[in-house]
Structure formats: C-alpha cells, structure tokens
Fold this sequence. Notes:
Blueprint: H1 44-47, H2 53-77, H3 82-100, H4 105-131, H5 141-162, H6 169-193, H7 207-237, H8 244-268
Amino acid sequence: xxxxxxxxxxxxxxxxxxxxxxxxxxxxxxxxxxxxxxxxxxxxxxxxxxxxxxxxxxxxxxxxxxxxxxxxxxxxxxxxxxxxxxxxxxxxxxxxxxxxxxxxxxxxxxxxxxxxxxxxxxxxxxxxxxxxxxxxxxxxxxxxxxxxxxxxxxxxxxxxxxxxxxxxxxxxxxxxxxxxxxxxxxxxxxxxxxxxxxxxxxxxxxxxxxxxxxxxxxxxxxxxxxxxxxxxxxxxxxxxxxxxxxxxxxxxxxxxxxxxxxxxxxxxxxx
Length: 271
C-alpha cells in the first residue's frame, strides 16, 4: 500500500490486497490500531456498516463548514488573540487524533473549530491592515484564499478521478520527500530570521518567496491526491463507516496547509 504525505493517513495498516484495513495492527503494537485494553478493534462486519464515499464527503463537508463559520466569526470579532489559542488547541487535538487514530467526532470537530479560529484570526489581521490609515490593501484576501483552496481541491479531485495523474509508489515517495524538504526549509528560514533580517528570503515577499509559496501550494495539491487515494482504498476495503471522521480530519490538515500558503501568496501581491 502507498503511504501518504499526510500524517493522518501514513500509518494505516493494509489488507493482503493492498487496501487500508483499520482492524489490523502492525507487528508489536498491542491492542490493535484503534482498540484499547489489549483487545483488537472489531471488524466492519461486526461493528457497523461499511464506509462509503458519501460518508467521507459528508463528514469532510461538515468540518469545512464548521471551520469556515468559526473563522468568519473570529475575523469579524476582532479577537485575534484567539488565533494563538486556536493553533495550540488544534495542534494538541491533531496529535491526539493521529497517535490514537481516533474516530471520535468531537475531537475531529474540535480540531476543525480550533483551526478555523486560528485561520480566521490570521485573516482578520490582514483585513485590519487593509482598514488602517496608509495600510496595504488586503481587502477580500480571505475570500480569495477560500476560493483558491476550493479551486485546488476540486481541480485535484478531477485530476484524480479522471486518472490524468495516477498515484503510484514513486509519486508518493516524491511528494513525501518534497513535503519533508519544504518543512525543513521553513524551519531553517525561521532560525535564520533570528540572526539575519528576512532570514533566507523564503517569506519576505520577494521573488524567491513567491516561488517558494507556489512550490508549497503544488505540494499541498499533490498531498490531496494522496489523500483521495487513501480514502478510496479505505472505501474499497470496507472499513467501518465511523472512520469517515478520521479521513475527514486528514483532509482538513491538508486544506489548512493549502489555505495558509494561498493566503500568504496572495499577500505578496498586495504589498
């Protein structure tokens, strides 16, 4: 089975046919991937009905709408300090969901709400700059970023469904390697910023920064391809329907990445 660049999907166990099977545990992991107390997780037949594409679509849509609603309220409220709280809570919930591979809908919805709060605060800061005297015009940048993220999502879904680009082991390795590479560069740029103004120039709004953001968006788009493939394999494997929440969480992590990078790219052209 191909692994995904999305940490939420990377460790899914596989069936003999190569599809994700949530009921199996890797060697040496007691209690199964999702079971506790040393007992393996029930199979789909013993637990509930099999997962369908509609389940994944519906749960993902619920999380997206929730994140958007919380984001809009946060941006309009002016309580931008909530952004830091959102990022911290979102990170904690993400780690819990990933390491426990939890299907708890409240944890997933909590993650989406927290990220919506964080992204809404960031967007609100840009909008506030737009309304300040002599400030750069960032008006409407949030709507543009949302539309851009939606456009990438729909575009990559069409590419995946039509088979224009197929998810192969080689493509998977390339995407994972590229994702690791940009994260390392982001950290290096952050550290360099403490010693040199602008750091390595990856986030200063210049030509290199624009190119870097475009690369990050491209990687995020291909991460969506891998996410589509993982969800497709889970449906084919007939895993329990409740795992739609876990898959929705995986999509949300990629969409958050894309929104931030698209928002950042748009800001460069407003300076």
